[in-house]
Amino acid sequence: MFTARKVALSVLCALIIGLVASCILLCSDHTAPASAPQGNYVTSPMVRNEADNLIWQARQAYAKNNLKESIRLLKKASRVDPGYPRVWLELCQDYQLTEEFDLAVEACKRAVQLEPNDALSYNSLGLAYGAAKNYPEAAKAFERATLGDSRSFVLSNWFDALWRSKQFEKALSVAERRVEVSATGNSVDESALYALGGVYTRLGKPEKAAGILARLRERHPEWNSMSCTMGVDDDAKSSISCNSPKVADSTKAKSKLDPDFEEGLKYWGQDKYPEAANAFEKAAGNSPVWYVYNQWVWALVASEQYEKAVVPCQKLVDLSAGRAVLGQDHALGILGAIYTRLGQSEKAQQAFDRAHELNPTLGTCIFGWNDQRRLQLQCHN
Question: According to the model, what pLDDT value does residue 26 have?
Answer without folding.
Answer: 35
